[in-house]
Amino acid sequence: MTDTTSGVTSAMDLNQAWADLKPAERENDPAHLKTEILAKLAYAVGKDPVVANSSDWLTATILVVRDHIVDRWMASTRENYRAEKKRVYYLSLEFLIGRLFRDAMNNLELTSGITQALSELDVDIDFIRELEPDAALGNGGLGRLAACFMESMATVGVPAYGYGIRYDNGLFRQAIEDGAQVEYPENWLAFGDPWEFPRREAAYTIGFGGSVEVTKDWDGATTSSWKPQETVMATAYDTPVVGWRGEKVNTLRLWRARPTSPIKLDLFNSGDHMGALSESNRAKSISRVLYPADSSEAGQELRLRQEFFFTSASLQDILRRHLQQYDTLDNLADKVAVQMNDTHPALAVAELMRLLVDQHNLKWDEAWTKTQAVLSYTNHTLLPEALETWPVNLVERMLPRHMQIIYTINARLLTDVKTAGHSEEILEKVSLIDEHGGRRVRMGNLSFVGAHKVNGVAGLHSDLMKVTVFKELHQVFPDRITNKTNGVTPRRWLMQANPGLTQLLRDTIGDGFMDNTEKLRDLEPFAQNPAFRAKFAAVKLENKTRLAHLIHERTGVKVDPTAMFDIQVKRMHEYKRQHLNILETIALYNAIRANPHKNWAPRVKVFAGKAAASYWQAKSIIRLINDVGNVVNNDSAVRDLLKVVFIPNYNVSAAEVIMPAADLSEQISTAGLEASGTGNMKFGLSGALTIGTLDGANVEMLEHVGADNIKIFGMTAQEVEALRIKGYNPRATIEGIPALKEVLDGIASGIFSPSDKNRYAGLVDSLWNSDHFLVAADFEAYTAAQREMDALWHDQDAWMTKAVLNTARMGWFSSDRTIREYAQEIWNVPTV
User: Would you say the C-alpha torsion 832, 819, 698, 540 has a positive or negative sign?
Assistant: First the structure.
């Protein structure tokens, strides 16, 4: 339910009008649900059960579940208005929500009733739920975290809106052709989205380009007015996000870009049919594709347009809603908290200032105080190159008033910093403008300066922010950085993705963990119970069998579910070091062939993940994995002791099958570069052991699961930094590791690419000559750690004991805990 009443309706009238309304009471028994499904099939889908196909049944059932959500949605919205609760607004360019059908049924406790109702109608729920499109509105951890946070905010009672873009095409659909990644459109909206509600009345004008007019008031003060050259419309689509047990429901509002004038009729009538639609196509391109390639100037412009488009629409909507209820901006910071998820919404700093100063006539100092009090910023990277910067001339051309505001913020900032006695070097580092190699706006600095709190997403990450990417800003604002270690929602990643384990846990320790995951600790004594370990192992084998079917279906490779499933699935990037994994895999392959009678632990090496379309090195790693798999999987000498598979088109739905099936979770980023990771938490929750570096949230996982139940290897972040300062010679390192040199020589000779021996020349040369992510430096430690895992695998009692303890000790990594910390320490809102 959204607050779409007329702006002339007072808050008092609205509260009174809603005071007597109560949510509809619906029966959840199968008989009533069956009646509701048939009614939706007839009156919403327009189909007779006799001719209805599977998609029709899915749509009808989703609409029934949606009705049950809407009842609670309206009740949540009324309560928020009546109690005048402070709202949290979560701005994110990504929301990797995946499929919602199972999630919503689970949280409303409708799964058993819906399943039986459909069964009585001769409809297989397991079949139809696979037909639901996977809303891939994100690329990886950032977008999936946003989805987890939205569900957890509803669960713990934080009134919240999520704001993003309703992309026509989500992140590309990945296909593997001749071993290489090929990108195709992911048209998730091809047949509409039955979960969403269009809000045509929630539409805002977004400007680009033009000029700024300055006028003098009667008292000599100046007023600036932006006159955009181009405008587009942002129209809203709302999806309800239901919390656990359906107690609260929040809103995900996604913006769609539309032209202010859909067609130039004069041009169309004159015969210029394409020209007549040029402005329309330009406007629609904003919400057409997630992450357009920004390697070209046009791509950079489109990316910046996207970021400003959703940020401006969201802030206009927030202020409209606030003024509708309170009719004053005096209490804005008391009632509004805006969280910027990464730097994509960084323009919120300048846009909120523009709206407050130019449109609502606040004085600069008052507007700045409110802006900082309202905004907070989550950083997700320690890679300086990953902190967005935009050319000053591009921002000036597209957003001239915002560039003026950024200059003003910067001038005041530098004056304050200089007055405080800081050095010229610090002034240069904290400046919002990077003057080196072409003047660019530093979006990370803008976000930091405009927020009252800046948080990292794991303890190590937050500590490193203070001495790396935000070292100088931390010196100037020592109380601004705080830590909020990420979490994942147990409803999606345990109850829904791993129902077999969930039922075993309920049978063993009761239902308490379903409301408080910390109660998973009650499982610890059962790790020593042979009968329980056998049941735990049986659930794991069932999950591995399910993944084995998926692997065969998507790749044609048959794997043995009793082998160790060693899995690395995540966004493809050199710092995540999928190439360290595949190089060690090749070394293992060589060792197996050289010593075929050794007691090897059978392994299935599973990879999945998408590489950015223009990231050639990451795409080269994908192809190498597939080429290696093609050789290894067809080598009879290996005798099924090793299989290598790359699962194409990794998304949330695939992750729900992969995560519960893992025996070994690969979290092997170069120490000091992974902000947090959430895949490590999902794997651990389902009883996977982690092999990883002391990086990101692995540090806190080590603390919680215990050093005996996680395998940490390689250099620490401090050792990485020390090596870089000392000077790292990758060539000498590789020469000193015969197994690694043999692997690289084999790749370079074309063993895995006989039709193109130079296919991996760039990848191999980068390791010999620079090895920026220290693959060779950690190779021996990684290899030794893997052989320790081999030995442990042969002792299944010991392995399963550690697996059970991983599940038992992962409760702290719930996103509910994370959200409660945000609420208490950043947003100042109560939770339940």
Answer: positive
**Residue 711 designated active-site:** no
- Exposed, middle or buried by CB within 10 Å (0-12, 13-18, 19+), for 245? middle
Which residues, 6 or more positions from 369, have their beta carbon under 8 angstroms from its beta carbon? Answer: none
474 close to 731: Cβ distance less than 8 angstroms: no
What's the rounded Cα separation, in Å, for the pair 242 and 496?
Answer: 14
Q: How far apart are CA 608 and CA 409, in angstroms?
A: 43
| Contacts with 796 (C-beta within 8 Å, 6 or more apart), sequence order | 537
Residue 684 tokens, joined: 């651990």
Does 576 qualify as catalytic in the annotation?
yes
Q: Tell me the three-class secondary structure of 637-661, residue by residue.
A: HHCCCEEEEECCCCCHHHHHHHHHH
Decide: 213 and 225 in contact? Cβ < 8 Å. Answer: yes
Cβ pair 123, 57 in contact under 8 A = yes
Q: H or E segment at 21?
A: none
**Could you say which of 173, 570, 802, 809 is catalytic?**
570
Name which of 141, 123, 92 is nearest 255 in CA terms: 92
790-829, pLDDT tens digit by residue? 999 999 999 999 999 999 999 999 999 999 999 999 999 9
Q: Which amino acid is at 384?
A: P
Q: Which residue in 235, 311, 381, 678 is the catalytic one?
A: 678
Q: What is the DSSP letter of 355?
A: I
Q: Is residue 350 over pLDDT 90?
A: yes
Q: Minimal CA–CA distance to 831: which of 88, 105, 253, 161?
A: 88
For β-strands 603-608 and 642-646, DSSP reports them as parallel
Phi then psi dihedrals of residue 591, to 5 deg: -70, -40
* Encoded tokens for 113: 């009733």
Region of residue 580 (phi > 0: left; psi between -120 and 50: alpha; otherwise: beta): alpha
Closest CA to 310 of 2, 144, 90, 158: 90
pLDDT tens, position by position, 188-230: 998 999 999 999 999 999 999 999 999 887 776 788 999 999 9
Q: How far apart, in Å, are the Cα atoms of 5 and each of 158, 203, 751?
A: 22, 14, 68
Q: Which domains does the chain have, with CATH numbers?
A: 1-84+100-133 (no CATH), 85-98+134-485+819-827 (3.40.50.2000), 490-813 (3.40.50.2000)
The total of other beta-carbon atoms located within 10 Å of residue 115's CB is: 17
Q: Is 678 part of the annotated catalytic residue set?
A: yes
pLDDT of residue 9: 52
Point out the catalytic residue in the list 173, 380, 440, 492: 380
User: What does the block give as tokens for 74?
Assistant: 């309206």
Among 759, 578, 585, 743, residue whose Cα is nearest residue 670: 578
Label each residue of 198-240 as H, E or C. Answer: EEEEEEEEEEECCEEEEEECCCCCEEEEEECCEEEEEEEEEEE
Closest by CA to 493, choosing from 807, 181, 163, is 807
Q: Which of 150, 15, 23 is nearest to 84 (CA)?
A: 15
Distances (CA, A) of 315 to 283, 320, 354, 374: 20, 8, 11, 11
Catalytic member of 129, 288, 484, 682? 682
Count, residues in the chain: 832
Q: H/E element holding 617? A: helix 616-632
The single residue of 78, 492, 571, 711 carrying the catalytic annotation is 571
Kindly state the tokens that stand for 626.
């597939």
Identify which of 623, 586, 592, 618 has the alpha carbon closest to the alpha carbon of residue 605.
586
Q: How many CB atoms lie within 10 A of CB 109?
A: 12
- pTM equals 0.95
Torsion of Cα atoms, 812 then 814 then 819 then 821, to 10°: 0
Q: Provide the token pair at 690.
A: 């982690």
Q: Positive or negative, the Cα torsion across 405, 256, 380, 391?
A: negative
Is 682 one of the catalytic residues? Answer: yes
**Pick the catalytic residue: 576, 605, 809, 817?**
576
